[in-house]
Design brief:
Length: 226
């Protein structure tokens, strides 16, 4: 089984104290930081750009997982790589040549991911399996934190697991992940679990407990706990 990781989405952090929130959530047991980049065009919300990624890179050694919800994406890949992203994930709808875009990410020395919206078929990754390090299954429509988990993503995770079996590819799930849904998605094959609201709720003193609850549910589903 591929290693389990819990990735807080800073979309739900306290943006007036973003560096502090990131350091505290890592100290509380999170594995990787998930950064949601939104352009108000590909998705109906605007978040931040490469300067924020660079600022967060400056306050933590944790891996940075950058989820680009922007179109066109190609002109911005290099800026996010230079800003300090470790993983760059793009949507197939965000450019004309997915294979070329993934190659560009890897040429910059970064891990490359493809994100599948709830209505995007798994077949979108079929011919780029050799070019990716990660598949991100969206379990909400992208654009906002705090949305309800879409259950059909479980069947999609199952299909992604079958399609990527035997390859060096992580399976990430993003949207509506809580201590309640974590077991379902881990059981369906996800090993990177993004959670925004469920990690940051209650403020810094609650981070460790929130992360532990998500991790425990996932570990139970993976058969790692009695
Ligand atoms: O990509 C995203 C939204 O487009 C976010 O990563 C995701 O929604 C996390 O927030 P929450 O855990 O609150 O659902
Ligand atoms: Fe995300």
């Amino acid at each position: 089984m591929r290693p389990l990781a819990i990735l807080p989405s800073v979309l739900a952090a306290d943006w007036a104290h973003i560096g502090d929130s990131v350091q505290k959530v890592i100290a509380a047991g999170a594995d990787i930081v998930h950064l949601d980049v939104m352009d108000g065009h590909f998705v109906p919300n605007i978040s931040f750009g490469p300067d924020m990624v660079k600022a967060i890179r400056g306050v933590t050694d944790a891996r940075l997982d950058v989820h680009l919800m922007i179109a066109p994406v190609d002109p911005y890949i290099e800026a996010f790589a230079k800003a300090g992203a470790d993983v760059i994930t793009i949507h197939p709808e965000a450019g004309p040549h997915l294979h070329r875009s993934l190659g560009a990410i890897r040429q910059l020395g970064k891990k490359a991911g493809v994100a599948l919206n709830p209505a995007t078929p798994v077949s979108a990754i079929e011919h780029v399996l050799g070019e990716i390090d990660l598949v991100l299954v969206m379990s909400v429509n992208p654009g906002f934190g705090g949305q309800a988990f879409i259950r059909s993503s479980l069947e999609k995770l199952d299909r992604v697991r079958a399609m990527t079996a035997g390859r060096d590819i992580d399976i990430e799930v993003d949207g509506g992940i809580t201590a309640e849904t974590a077991g379902l998605v881990a059981g369906a094959g996800a090993n990177w679990l993004v959670a925004g609201s469920a990690v940051f709720k209650g403020g810094p003193t609650a981070y460790a407990g929130n992360i532990a609850a998500i991790r425990k549910a996932a570990q139970l589903a993976r058969g790692e706990l009695a």
